[in-house]
Amino acid sequence: MKATEIRDLNAEEIQHNVLDLKEALFNLRFQHEIGQLENPKKIGETKKHIARLKTILNEKILTLTED
User: Fold this and answer.
1) How far apart, in whole angstroms, are the C-alpha atoms of residue 6 and residue 58?
2) Per residue in 10-22, is it b (16+ CB within 10 Å) or e — as a string?
3) Contact 6/14 with Cβ under 8 angstroms?
């Protein structure tokens, strides 16, 4: 999901996506530890996606508090 697509979502949807991705990250780490993860780059991609979501969520919160 690109940043422009994320900005179209509301704050609750972004938070829901963050929670889903955190759960997915946990599962990826678990798979990595037991040797079942085929693509270890997915862990880094998931972390970056979570950071992107949190950054845009923080921007939305700051713009709401400034008004």
Assistant:
1) 12
2) eeeebeebbeebe
3) yes
Query: What is the pTM assigned to this prediction?
Result: 0.90
At 12-22, the pLDDT tens digits run 999 999 999 99
User: Is the separation of the CB atoms in 12 and 30 below 8 Å?
Assistant: no
Tokens of 51: 């950071």
Paired tokens of 8: 């179209």
Predicted pLDDT at 34: 96
61 token code pair: 């919160």
**In this structure, what CATH number is given to the domain that contains residue 40?**
1.10.287.310
**CA–CA dist 17, 19 (Å, integer):** 5
Domain count, the chain: 1
